[in-house]
Amino acid sequence: MPLRKADVVEGALRFLDAEGLDQLTMRRLGAALDVQGGALYRHFPNKEALLDAVADRIVEGVGDPLPDVAWPERTRILSNRLRTALLRHRDGARVVAGTFAPGANTIIGSDMAVQVLCGAGLPPAQAGWMSFALFYYVLGHCIEEQAQLRLPADHDWRSRTAQLDVKVSPQYAAALDSLAGTDPAERFDYGLHVFIDGLRRLQATLPPPEEAVRGTTP
To answer: Whole-prediction pTM value?
Structure first.
């Protein structure tokens, strides 16, 4: 059976899960798929194009229809969907961070985020800005989560800091202890709560939607 474009993307995802992003090359992927490396170039002109497609595949489903609930809960659901998608594959957050993929799944998810934030009363332009801010929060958090998974079991930030001969405040030490010892999901939810609470406060300062203004005009 001829190698299809979708087969290459799925093969790349399997390779990522097994070997990680740093090991992925067109030659190695071709070997994993048991084809000559040149066969991949019929579908993707270079590794960057392949990673664009892989990134878009990773976020598939993030923009699926949301339940009919208030915008704060829709924001929470959408953010958790994205986090789950990024963490589903090894180095998934790094793959998405390293691309600017205007694929269908990416556009659908972005459109959903803008709609949700417009539902909070933001004009489309500011909804776009805030959707990017939310995306960067989720993405950055997931990059750190996946990086921590690669740390050796005996990793000890305290001993490393001591070797640098840098004095840190008790508050900083307590903060880093918490970062290292707290469930990442708990930290993620805390930051997301702060983000949504900030949007609530911003919403309170916004003028009523144009439709509502027209509706109250005599």
So the answer is: 0.88
